[in-house]
């Protein structure tokens, strides 16, 4: 599904160069949940930005088959404030000039755990968790093949986080999309993903399966440190 | 967590949803009493302009030198001017002229300014640079001298006045639209639309434009007050609307020689200009509270 | 001795003919020198309770209580609206709580001057910065807030609060925007400085494991009530359905599960 080879990104600000990514390579299979973990400045979000075309790499290349959609950390800026929830979900169809079938949108609302009564609501009337559901729903409507999740639950309460993570797992089972989850939360990434990339200062430190992570079969000392630091 | 009674009901159509949103905004706007009364005043002005011929007690153009410079009385509520015309009637018909000028200027400036602003803001890089330097050039043109030039070329009148003001006035909308666009462009929902395959024109039309309109409208209300003052200024200098069309600025000017002995000739139109521009400013304040971006995001 | 004794505290806000209760009949006693953890989800009223203690409640809210004493003296309802200078607060985001146009040095000096301390300020600033384990106090003193990393900003924030010599320090989500490494350092720093200066410390957080690791005692807030209160090390053994529910819905590294359990709100009575 995704094949990235030697991705390097250099940002330049006021004459100072900053290597955001250096020689990052990875493969993600179709329908897989792929996790990227790291602290701030590790380049984990830059990978998503490169995949979605928001940032172009300075060297290296990647191949990606299919459509993408982003699930953002901040659910408050992810939805058009003047559009109703229904309109937001119809948007992918409208953009591609496809016929909008309202029953399909309502089905989608139900799939993400929101009822029909949300169709004519505005985003400001929804809680953070509900907005995140709408964002996920939008990706379903556009039949995105790959979901890029950038800290999707770090702005949410833990009880809401559990609901959203469960929802993502259920939907993935049903629709077989690929997920790339970027987070700093080790337990979250271990719960969601089988395959995890540990990043630090733009470099890949280790690629590890969640099973090995749980068993403590960790090669790199930095990864060990991250495990020890999580409560 | 702000919840009010209207939010608990489930909207059943987009009309419902729209209605609720407008109602919510109206609650915010009407909580500011000065803005609310200013708004009522402006509505009244529009009504006065529409029914001027029914409301005005006299013919505004009826010259009768035997009645010149009459003091305010029960027949001539605000007195008469140097040609014996009823000042109240001229004020009432003057509303039409004012609205006419304001609407024409909005028509010439807002669409142009906003279009240039959002294209510059969204396009970025060289598009931004070229368009904004162009804006700077127009901003640097001296208004009064430009107006004098137009009057010399086209003769004094409403059209030269409108063109002279419009030529420089659109720049402020371009600047506002651009700065708003630069903020909107970075929003996540715009990013999401791009990933859905939306073309730049679609994003400008459905995402950028609706979101920068509120600030443009607020700016517009403030500017309208400025335009009224400017039009009055041009009228006062004799560059604007020509007699016998009643225009507030020209009316103030015509009372100038009699200011000490016959104060009412200049006072009434001067007061009308003052009150109207004040009301516009207050309405602008109220609108600014309604569209406070913190509410929308 | 208790530093704070608050009985039956209620906080409400009037919104369009309706009155919403933000905190409902909460009683709270905090011992001198204690580290108290306050846990709750958004909207639980935890932040508003803290703002009331500090005396910076929003204007549109109405408070009531049976009795409120701070440092052994009773405080009337009128007095409770004034800022208590013996309490200081550290907020989540140092970037927005520090003044962007003043250097670190000037801001800390300001805090000293506020306390009526005007001598040898340069020296005192450096000493305070050292106290919060800043390796390079000279450089940091001359920097502006935007030049500092998140962790460094939070240290400066704590240094500033120490300059005020408070009896009680409230840290509202002090580390939720920081990396795991830095999070530990800041929490250690808060705990150690509180102990050294004889300060009482309140840590407000949504992170139960964190609170349980750093506090002596925990109170759990839900919908404006204190629903649970226990020793911090017993948090994981709590019998209260809300606390249990919160702990259960956290993913755990050593526990592979297909699904996370969901908090059943209807089972929680207040």
Report on this structure.
The complex is a heterotrimer of chains A (231), B (297) and C (270). The radius of gyration of chain A is 18 Å and the shape is globular. Chain A has helices spanning 44-51, 85-95, 102-111, 128-141, 158-175, 186-192, 210-215, 221-229; strands at residues 2-13, 16-28, 33-37, 59-64, 68-71, 146-150, 178-183, 195-200, 203-209. With 231 residues, chain A is α/β, with parallel strands linked by helices. The longest helix of chain A is centred in the C-terminal third of the chain and has 18 residues, at 158-175. The mean pLDDT of chain A is 88. In chain A, the strands form 2 sheets. Chain A has a 6-stranded mixed β-sheet, sandwiched between helices. A 3-stranded antiparallel β-sheet of chain A has the order 2-1-4, covered by helices on one side. Chain A is 36% helix and 28% strand. Chain B is mostly helical and 297 residues long. Chain B is globular. In chain B, 39% of the residues are buried. By secondary structure, chain C is α/β, with parallel strands linked by helices. In chain C, the strands form 2 sheets. A 6-stranded mixed β-sheet of chain C has the order 7-8-9-3-10-11, with helices on both faces. In chain C, strands 1, 2, 4, 5 and 6 form a 5-stranded antiparallel β-sheet that branches. Chain C is globular, with a radius of gyration of 19 Å. The A-C interface holds A 39-40, 128, 157-159, 161-163, 165-166, 169, 184, 186-188, 190-191, 210-211, 213-214, 225-227, 229-231 and C 41-42, 150, 179-181, 183-184, 206-210, 213, 245-246, 249-254, 256-263.
